[in-house]
Amino acid sequence: MPSTNARHINPERKRKHMTDMFDAPGSASGVKWEDLNGKLLLIQPLSEEAGINTSFGAANAVRANVTVLDGPTAGEEFNDTLIFPKVLQSQVKGNVGTGRFNLGRLGKGLAKPGQSAPWMLGDPTDSDKDIARAHLAKAASAPF
Hints:
This protein is an alpha+beta fold. Helices cover 20% and strands 33% of the residues. The chain has a 6-stranded antiparallel beta sheet. β2 (40-54) and β3 form a beta hairpin. The longest helix has 15 residues, at 126-140.
């Protein structure tokens, strides 16, 4: 299920942000997990949300900032987005309110009988951690 109310920032818009301090309004597009399958994601969990109204009824989610760190969409950000997949929620909610990040490559786990395979983060490699450190260092030195 796509997340809602996320502020989506594409890499081109982010590059422009370095030279121009004004942006057009952000879109309310959510994360389409299928599009991020296999991508290295940096997730900063912000809060746990309960009883969110969805087309499937009330659901719980984790509100987070999600950044794609590799591939052609590297640098793409989904700020203040809602994470609905339950296994993915369980992997990141321990860092809610800590300021710490979760890092891993998005994939699907094993499906239980009669259910879809769950979205989840695989453990990062040392190379993945180096990519994340470089991203965070670059973000910390942004010229503002």
